[in-house]
Amino acid sequence: MKRRLALVTAAVLLAGCATQQAKYDWGQHDQKLYAYYKAPANLLEFSDALSAIVKAAETKHTRVPPGVYAEYGYLQLQAGKTKEAADLFGLEAAHWPESKVFMDRMAAVALGGSSSAPTK
């Protein structure tokens, strides 16, 4: 009986040590974001890193991490690619509904609309 109890206890303790798989694949987001903040001329490198995160998630059929579509869309907007930016803002709103109001406004801005809230 003591032996069984010891085995069960050991199994429970070892199960607690199991590694957990990350919920999202962030790729090299942190390193590239840091490099971009230190040297804004690294914009293309950071944009490529965000694109790689999106493509990797699509390939693996997993969710894109929160904010990545929006961040990538903002970089597209800065580059003057308004249609692509609006599409990415729409993807962020679709995948993360809590961001819908803000992403709808960003898409409107990207397409030349107003950023102000509608009046009642």
Describe this entry's structure for a reader.
The chain is mostly helical and 120 residues long. The chain has one domain: Serine Threonine Protein Phosphatase 5, Tetratricopeptide repeat. It has six helices and no strands. The protein has helices at residues 2-16, 29-38, 43-60, 68-78, 82-95, 100-110. The longest helix has 18 residues, at 43-60.
Number of helices: 6
Order of helices and strands: HHHHHH
Mean pLDDT: 87
Summarize the main sheet.
none
The assigned structural class equals mainly alpha
Annotate the secondary structure layout:
Layout: H1 2-16, H2 29-38, H3 43-60, H4 68-78, H5 82-95, H6 100-110
Helix pairs in contact: 2-3, 3-4, 4-5, 5-6
Quick structural summary:
The chain is mainly α and 120 residues long. Helix content is 66%, strand content 0%. The longest helix is centred in the middle third of the chain and has 18 residues, at 43-60.
Features:
120 residues, mainly alpha, Serine Threonine Protein Phosphatase 5, Tetratricopeptide repeat, 66% helix, elongated
